[in-house]
Design goal:
The complex is a heterotrimer of chains A (167), B (177) and C (348). With 167 residues, chain A is mostly helical. Chain A has 6 helices and no strands. The radius of gyration of chain A is 20 Å and the shape is globular. In chain C, helix 1 runs parallel beside helix 10 and helix 8 runs antiparallel to helix 11. Classes of the chains: A mainly alpha (167), B alpha+beta (177), C mainly alpha (348).
């Protein structure tokens, strides 16, 4: 067991514990902070895979921007026990069943996918995650999906501006 | 309406030009102004180490004077208390007993003489009113304190030291050395 | 061998980290003192001069005062997060220094030691990530105080930070187009090369946008709305007292130091001394001169931070947002376009 494996297990444990704490903590603000912890652990995994760019963009976009927005919303809504509506037991059961189904589909898909079978992640080598290679791939092979997704973002921005505009 | 002086400037309400709206030039000008202040002379006086000289007509804390033989000059006539516009002075008169001639110059003296320094406005009218040259305003001011009662100065605070028994303290109070 | 770690490298990095952290803390400590002195001389007065010779012990007196103050944790606050807030702010401020190249390599005990904790190939993005995490300190501190004014101030501070991060990133993209790398060490080496000017020559507009955004990110005047004492009822650290307040205030100074270092590195040649060929000197001497050169540049930037603070009044909040979104972002985009066009034109 070398240092990278130790780091891998540590980060995995961190990610799982944080993910559990997201669900288990009573306070929604704590949940958000645990979720930020999950992102940190996942970024650590990316770094182990030598995908530094993806790791850091994961931090900038998810931990630095999206979770801040989550935090904004949750802080302003002031969620606590008094304002939280009591959910019916059937609702909870339905939620559990649908989530379980989703998990089963996910697991079976991953198990059957031919490109994932009998392969482990390449640690520390492989350079597709480096920014130069990633940029070349995005702007040559995948340029059409890349540009289409940017149009998607543009339309989202325009939509937000339209909603936010005073009549 | 006719202007009192010719210093009035009409307000410039022209819309700002592009350069003015950039603000950068004006910010830079402002920064030059503040920078030039680095080289200006500092008017600060390092107070406890350096003190500014008082003007010769400065009116500070009161002093109850003694004559050359060290006797109190005050005769408790009450003219200072009457003259005081802030009503800061109160006194109680007493009669001089035989054997106290070396303490009090007149036959009547102030047994109690109090000035409330919080009320006093340091106008110096008491000094003008005194017929016996007994009260003077010195060149010091009341030090700060936490307690209001300490600002009521009694005779022990106001009396100048005796020139015969304590010549050094007297000279110091007079500001001679 | 259980762990195949290069222990000497590990030790070397550990020592470097300790030095960098203590140096940034020490410099930030004296920045508080410099702030008061600069404020004083700009206002024609001598400034603090009682504690020690020339008042040099003043920062320790200030620190002692903060420590000795009563530690108040509000009853209705979220205690864990209330304590976590200032520590997050401080950690985020200190973490940025990991990718800064402090000087050229040092030769010691037969080893070549780079004076940079980690020369990762995403250096600038790392700085961005850490800066964007600094928002958490503000948000958590403001919310955990359970005070509406703190919460409003936290929202104000966080939205300010996020808005100006955008323009900052866009202004940096133009710079990265000219350098072609995100590695800070590489960027500095490019600027040292003979025949290559400092990046400020190629990116004057980008630098202007960057420095304005740096002011906003560090919550410095004219953008210090998150802590406007008089008109906005102080900021997100309203409920804080004692050393926790000290951490918040102190992290601002660490941020100022770090952003000065980043500006010097990106636009002013880092540890480069102009008109000096470092190759002629022995590497260790060159490294020492490099550190000094970088620190001189940093001191100049810190002075500019303070100079601006004591010259320009605070923005109103709508003016702040207008400047960020309606002026700086379009300007940065235009700068990016122009840079790209020029690079294409020259490349042909």
């Amino acid at each position: 067991m070398n240092a990278i494996q130790i780091l891998f297990w540590f980060l995995s444990a961190l990610a799982l514990v944080s993910a559990l704490m997201v669900l288990l903590s009573k306070n929604p603000v704590h949940s958000v902070l645990w979720l930020v912890g999950v992102f940190f652990a996942i970024s650590g995994h990316y770094i182990l895979l030598n995908a530094q760019f993806i790791a850091i963009v994961n931090l900038i976009v998810y931990a630095g921007a999206i979770m801040v927005l989550f935090l904004f919303v949750i802080m302003l809504m002031n969620l606590n026990k008094d304002t939280e509506p009591q959910k019916h037991i059937w609702m909870k059961l339905a939620g559990a069943i649908s989530a379980g189904c989703f998990l089963m589909i996910l697991v079976s898909l991953i198990k059957q996918a031919p490109e994932l079978q009998a392969k482990t992640a390449m640690m520390k080598d492989g350079d597709i995650g480096l920014i130069a290679n990633l940029g070349k791939a995005l702007f040559s092979t995948y340029v059409v999906p890349f540009e289409i997704s940017s149009i998607l973002f543009l339309s989202a921005m325009v939509g937000a501006a339209v909603i936010g505009k005073k009549d | 309406m006719q202007a009192l002086t010719n210093r009035a400037q009409p307000v410039n309400r022209k819309p700002m030009t592009f350069l003015e709206r950039l603000y950068l030039i004006n910010i830079f000008k402002g920064m030059l102004i503040t920078f030039s202040h680095i080289f200006k002379k500092q008017p600060t006086i390092q107070y406890p180490d350096q003190k500014r000289p008082f003007s010769p007509v400065f009116r500070g804390l009161h002093v109850l004077n003694r004559d050359e033989e060290g006797r109190e000059r005050c005769t408790a006539c009450g003219l200072c208390a009457v003259a005081c516009p802030a009503e800061a002075i109160t006194m109680e008169a007493a009669e001089r007993l035989p054997g106290e001639e070396n303490l009090y110059r007149e036959e009547k003296y102030a047994a109690r003489y109090e000035i409330n320094m919080l009320r006093c406005i340091f106008c110096g009218l008491c000094e003008d009113a005194c017929p016996k040259d007994a009260i003077y305003l010195s060149e010091t001011f009341a030090p700060a304190n936490f307690n209001r009662t300490t600002f009521i100065y009694g005779k022990q605070n106001l009396l100048i030291p005796n020139p015969l028994t304590e010549p050094e303290a007297y000279a110091k109070a007079k500001g001679l050395n | 061998m259980l762990l195949s770690i290069d222990w000497i490298l590990f030790l070397e990095k550990l020592i470097l980290i300790a030095i960098v952290i203590f140096a940034s803390l020490g410099i930030a400590l004296y920045t508080t003192f410099a702030e008061r002195k600069v404020a004083a001389v700009l206002q024609d007065r001598p400034g603090p001069n009682r504690a020690g010779p020339f008042g040099l012990l003043q920062p320790f007196a200030d620190g002692l005062k903060l420590i000795m103050k009563e530690e108040i944790i509000p009853n209705t606050s979220n205690k864990v997060l209330f304590i976590l807030g200032p520590f997050l702010a401080m950690t985020a401020a200190l973490m940025t220094s990991a990718v800064i190249p402090w000087s050229s390599d040092v030769h010691l005990f037969g080893r070549v030691i780079p004076l940079q904790i980690a020369d990762v190939n995403i250096g600038i993005l790392y700085i961005f990530a850490v800066v964007s995490l600094g928002v958490y300190g503000i948000m958590i501190g403001g919310w955990a105080s359970n005070n509406k004014f703190s919460l409003m101030a936290a929202l104000r501070g966080a939205s300010q930070a996020i808005s100006y991060e955008l323009a900052m990133g866009l202004s940096l993209i133009a710079l990265l187009m000219t350098t072609g790398t995100l590695q800070l060490g590489e960027i500095v080496k490019q600027q040292i090369e003979p025949g290559h000017w400092w990046n400020i020559v190629y990116q004057p507009l980008g630098f202007l946008i960057f420095i304005i955004c740096a002011f906003a990110e560090c919550n410095r005047t004219p953008f210090d709305l998150p802590e406007a004492e008089n008109e906005l009822n102080f900021g997100y650290h309203q409920e804080y007292s004692s050393m926790k307040l000290g951490f918040y205030l102190f992290s601002e100074y660490v941020n100022m130091f770090i952003s000065s270092v980043v500006m010097a590195t990106l636009y002013f040649g880092g540890y480069d001394v102009p008109f000096l060929n470092e190759n002629l000197l022995s590497p260790n001497v060159a490294a020492i001169i490099g550190v000094i050169a970088l620190l001189v540049k940093v001191v100049i930037f810190i002075f500019i931070f303070m100079w601006v603070r004591w010259t320009i009044p605070r923005f109103r909040y709508d003016q702040l947002m207008n400047l960020g979104w309606k002026s700086l972002v379009p300007l940065a985009l235009a700068n990016m376009l122009i840079t790209g066009a020029v690079i294409l034109w020259l490349g042909k």
